[in-house]
Amino acid sequence: MDDSVQKIGIVGSGSWATAMIKMLGDNEAKKEVLWWIRKEEDLEYVRAYGHNPNYLSAVQLQVKDKNLFSAARSVIQGADIVVLNTPSAYLKDALKDVTAADFEGKVVVSAIKGIIPDDNLIVGEYLSKYYHIPLSQVVVVGGPCHAEEVSSEKLSYLTIAAKDSTNAELVAGLLRNRYINTIISADVFGVEYGAVLKNIYALAGGICHGLGYGDNFLAVLVSNAIREMHTCVNAIDPGVDRDINASAYLGDLLVTAYSQFSRNRTFGHMIGKGYTVQSAQLEMNMVAEGYYASACIQNIIQRYALEMPICNMVYQILYNRQPAAAEVRKLATKLT
User: Fold this and answer.
1) 188, 237 in Cβ contact below 8 A?
2) With a cut of 70, which residues of the chain have pLDDT below it?
3) Binding site feature residues
4) Is 106 a catalytic residue?
5) I want to staple 202 with a disulfide (CB 3.0 to 4.6 A). Which of 6, 102, 133, 264 is the partner?
C-alpha cells in the first residue's frame, strides 16, 4: 500500500462495527475513519465520551468528531473503502438513501455474516444486483473472530476474501495489528456462505444444549455440520479448490458453536429451554443472524435439492413451530 491516506467508512454501530473501529484505531497505517451511527443520541454519546453506550462500552474509540455521521450516505460518499457492518436484516434500511453512483469506484467490504431477507442473497450478490458493484470490488471479512475478544485484545484471526487480491491485501493491511492476524482468500462465495451457515449450526447447537444434550452429542453435531456446509457451498459455487477445514469455515463454525460470546448459540439455547422465537428476540440485545439465515437457506436447499438435515431441523423449529425435543430426536437418527 502507498503512503496516501485511506478514508474508511464504517456503516453500522453494533458490537462488530465497534470492534472494527477499535481494530482500525490500533492499526499503524495512515487512514481516516468515518463512522455512521444510526441513533442520534448514540452519536452524541460517542462524540462526548469516546465510547459506544450500547456495545463494547468499555472500548475507547479513536474517531474524530467531524467524522461521526447520522447519514449513511455521507459516510459512503466520503470514503475510499466502505465497510458494511449492520445486521443483514437492517442493511436495506441503512442504504435506503444511497445510490449506485455513491459506491462507484470504491472498494466495498462486507463484514455482515448473513443473507438479505426476502432477496435470499448474500451481501456481495445483493450489492452487485441492486448497486451494480462489480464483484471484483467486493471484499468479504470472515472469522473466526468474536467482537468481545477483539475488545480485550485477545489474539484473533480474520479471513479477508476477494476476487482481486490487491483489494484483499489492502483491507487486510488496514485491519491487521498487534492482536489481529489476517488470512487472505480468493473464495469470496465460500467464505460468505460459510459465515451464513455456521450461524444456523451454532443455533442448532444451542437448541441441543438447551434441551440437555451434552458435549459428546454437540461434537457429533458439529462434525456433521461441517460436512453439510461443504455440500451446500460446493453446490452453490462448484469447481473451487477450497479446504473446508480452514479457519474461515471450520474455525468460524467451532467458535460460533461453542463460545460463550456466540449470540446464535445463546438464541438457540433459549429456544431449547422453551422460549418462543419472539420472547427470545425480545430478551436478546443483539441480532442472531442464524434466525434470518434459516429461512433463506431453505430456498437454496430446495433450489439445489440438497440433503441438509441440520438446517432443516432448525427451520422446522423456528418457522413451523415444531417441538424442539422431537425434532432433535429425529435429527439424532440421521447423524453419523
Assistant:
1) no
2) 1-3
3) 113, 147, 263-264
4) no
5) 264
Annotated binding site for substrate: 113, 263-264
Q: Which helix (H) or strand (E) element contains residue 204?
A: helix 188-210
One DSSP character per residue, 118-173 reads TTTEEHHHHHHHHH---GGGEEEEE-S--HHHHHTT--EEEEEEESSHHHHHHHHH
Binding residues for NAD(+): 147, 263
How far apart are the C-alpha atoms of 217 and 209, rounded to whole Å? 9
- In sign, the C-alpha dihedral spanning 22, 24, 30, 34 is negative
Domain identity same for 224 and 250: yes
**What was the pLDDT predicted at 3?**
58
Q: How many helices (H) and strands (E) does the chain have?
A: 16, 10
What is d(CA 73, CA 94) in angstroms, rounded to the nearest whole number? 9
CA-based nearest residue to 85, from 104, 109, 120: 109
With respect to residue 24, please indicate whether it lies within any of the assigned structural domains.
yes
pLDDT at position 158 is 97
Q: How far, in Å, CA of 177 to CA of 155, rounded?
A: 10
Establish if 260 belongs to a structural domain.
yes
Number of folded domains that form the chain: 2
User: Is 159 within a domain?
Assistant: yes
The answer on 225 and 127 residing in a single domain is no
Same structural domain, 22 and 118: yes
C-alpha cell at 20: 472494527
Domain ranges, residue 32: 6-186
Domain boundary among 186, 213, 248: 186
User: Is the pTM here over 0.90, yes or no?
Assistant: yes
- Pick the closest to residue 181 from 204, 150, 218 (CA basis): 150
pLDDT in the model for residue 1: 42
Q: Which of these is catalytic: 92, 129, 198, 334?
A: 198
DSSP structure class, residue 13: -
